Amino acid sequence: MNSPQPAARDALPTAFVDTLRTAFGARFSTAQAVRAHHGHDESHFPDALPDAVVFPHSTGEVAAIVAACRAHRVPIVPYGAGSSLEGHILAIHGGLCVDFSEMNKVLAIHTEDMDVVVQPGVTRKQLNAALHGSGLFFPLDPGADASIGGMASTRASGTNAVRYGTMRESVLGLTAVLADGRVIRTGGRARKSSSGYDLTRLLVGAEGTLGLITELTVRLHPLPEAVSAAVCAFPSVDAAVRTVIQTIQLGVPVARIELLEALTVRAINRYSKTTLREAPTLFFEFHGSPAGVEEQAASVQEIAREQGGMDFEWATRPEDRSRLWQARHDTYFACLNLRPGSRGVTTDVCVPISRLAEAIAGAREDIAASGLIAPILGHVGDGNFHTVILVDPDNPAELERAEALNRRIVERALALDGTCTGEHGIGFGKQDFLLAEHGEAAVDAMRLVKRALDPDNLLNPGKVLPGL
Amino acid sequence: MNSPQPAARDALPTAFVDTLRTAFGARFSTAQAVRAHHGHDESHFPDALPDAVVFPHSTGEVAAIVAACRAHRVPIVPYGAGSSLEGHILAIHGGLCVDFSEMNKVLAIHTEDMDVVVQPGVTRKQLNAALHGSGLFFPLDPGADASIGGMASTRASGTNAVRYGTMRESVLGLTAVLADGRVIRTGGRARKSSSGYDLTRLLVGAEGTLGLITELTVRLHPLPEAVSAAVCAFPSVDAAVRTVIQTIQLGVPVARIELLEALTVRAINRYSKTTLREAPTLFFEFHGSPAGVEEQAASVQEIAREQGGMDFEWATRPEDRSRLWQARHDTYFACLNLRPGSRGVTTDVCVPISRLAEAIAGAREDIAASGLIAPILGHVGDGNFHTVILVDPDNPAELERAEALNRRIVERALALDGTCTGEHGIGFGKQDFLLAEHGEAAVDAMRLVKRALDPDNLLNPGKVLPGL
């Protein structure tokens, strides 16, 4: 894990500040409080403040911002909801933070085509509120109320990805401002296309280093006719994981399948005042027709029973489901609460489903050997799981142990044909892992693309690519 | 539509020929018959022969080929099964054809993870034969027995894409040789990842212009427990299209939903000796559990009935289904057979589902006005349809009318928020349309990527990007 190395740098050029102030008035700020608010995310990394923050309202304004930054060689850091876990929005080289929170309009809802056009600052909850009554929803749910632009930039996913895919599958098209100030439109509203290079998916997951996303066309899904959720406790983590593997391999189209180990359940019980049995647990959700949901649930119950699953408890009322998933979403904070004052170093590996049991068992051994507190939870239907390693941010030795633990978990995942990050992204915390995962030649190819599209390295510099 | 402009050029350098002959022996050929075999695809474009053909067996050999081509500035044209419809494999600037047909090993079947690792020359039918008994299948089906490498390169899809996605969703990872001779590995076997730029999807659909794919990890699906297929005739194309739109909008997970107009059905009856009613027709296929398939079929039957659908005829026996889909797959040749000696100019637009009726009705008017014979068929669940414009290849005036008709159909599709190609690719036939669809700035961004990864323009030159 790299530490941010704020380069010694000059303050922003006066001419640049004047240009922005004239164009944006009160929507441009160099105030300490505004900079401080934009200088940290949800990760454990130290704050790194931008020199100024601007709040654009349109693609044209973003293009003007990029032109000014290019003229004065000012780094640009895009900012969504600030819920990143890998330091994406830390201004480690200073520069201008472009806060998209005021570009938060839902521009068009195409009910008949099940897609929506949004500005990047729209959050997923806001989008689903706007879709109320349409019969459609945006299923991706990373827990935090992240912005759609930020979710695209980190190729986010979350609890529903096992059924509905990730942002890679969800984004149909983009408008983006490139480093040269030009506005491009990628993709489109057709469901498939063989028309040229896939610039959409090049920008999705690029963490703001190849262009600033100013508009997104996103795929929606019909609200399922029937939904049911259930909780099931298991005698061991292994038994729970075997249940997951068999469910996926049988092709049961579960919408959510989440693993929590006993410690994680204890954290949830304390934080969310729930009374779940403190054992390894799976949370399930099934979507479909009434008959389909019943069929799915019956299949999974049978698998779980064979693995010693206990207490298959149903939450059929919407309010019970909401309480359940809210508790699941609050797990990160519930975990932090196990050790007041701590921050979380979150691991995010993802492995092929057949290697999941080995990856999790290995992680549990590593955690035990480390002496650290690190509850495990995860979107196990995808082979993705997290450990929230609780650290005292003022204890460098402990932070080092946490980073060593993270490295061991990642190295095992890579040896098991997995990835160092299933959904959080590289940021600057995982650049060594990027290299270990893809190799020098592939990372060089990424660098060639970056240099071609951003020769002056102005877009979110220091993120994703080591040595850039 | 551009015409291929074979540049005046020298023969292959002697030193280059000597190098390849020494390394590959009989697997390197400059024989006229071999060159001629590799000088055309299934399109109407005139033949353009490579100067030589080589048949590599490994990634290492491909890297050596690229190194030799680079040293001698010899263009490289990758060749799969030759079933392209947009001239992708025509050697319009001469050079070396790299025929991947002898790189046709299925390297690993990961049943538990539902993925497979293949060499690029493996064809889709070969792959499904290799999967026999595994309980899994590779659903993508473009009709032709295309190679998996070629399908990835054109971002192909076909009849099953409405349920299982396209090659964009199916390719999990790649090994590729870049223009500098370096071997990269992209993606991996984890189901999702936020690790760096999406080089996998940059290469998928790049038509061999950014790298030569030498290995692919491809997603598989469980064989459905139950399958049923049906044919339904409609009083009008509009009624059939309305049935499709409502089916998709209701979220019925049909596996296939294909439209054939009356003329197309007539062509099939003649060519495949079937006795289908010569009316606008939909072919359906449903995959799922027995109950799920019944539920899907009941929903669709109800929709079809409301639109005046007649003769909902079931093909439940596997041999009846095979006959049905074989007839569907032979449609291209059945259409050509409507006018013996003709070749097909195939259009391939794809529009948002809500605009499908307008796009098809407009195409029918354009065809009528053109005086040409051009049956319509299509993967309408995706909003994708084809017209096969039958032309006398020796009649330039007719070819020009066909191209004008193609242009009108594309222009309407773009105006309806669609794409000029749903699944066939750009090749050199659609470069003007690429520009019209994406605009100068986006195509320039593609050019920047191309120049960064292939500065000497050696990889399939003259394809995809206008002016390169």
TrEMBL record, chains A, B:
UniProt domain FAD-binding PCMH-type: residue ranges: 46-223
PROSITE patterns, per database record: FAD_PCMH
Top-rank EC class of the record's enzyme: oxidoreductase
GO biological process, one term: lactate catabolic process
Top-level taxon: Bacteria
EC identifiers of the protein: 1.1.2.4
GO MF annotations in UniProt: D-lactate dehydrogenase (cytochrome) activity; D-lactate dehydrogenase (NAD+) activity; FAD binding
InterPro entries: FAD-bd_oxidored_4_C (IPR004113), FAD-bd_PCMH (IPR016166), FAD-bd_PCMH-like_sf (IPR036318), FAD-bd_PCMH_sub2 (IPR016169), FAD-linked_Oxase-like_C (IPR016164), Oxid_FAD_bind_N (IPR006094), Vanillyl_alc_oxidase_C-sub2 (IPR016171)
Protein keywords: FAD, Flavoprotein, Oxidoreductase, Transit peptide
Cofactor (UniProt): FAD
Family: Belongs to the FAD-binding oxidoreductase/transferase type 4 family.
The protein, known as: D-lactate dehydrogenase (cytochrome)
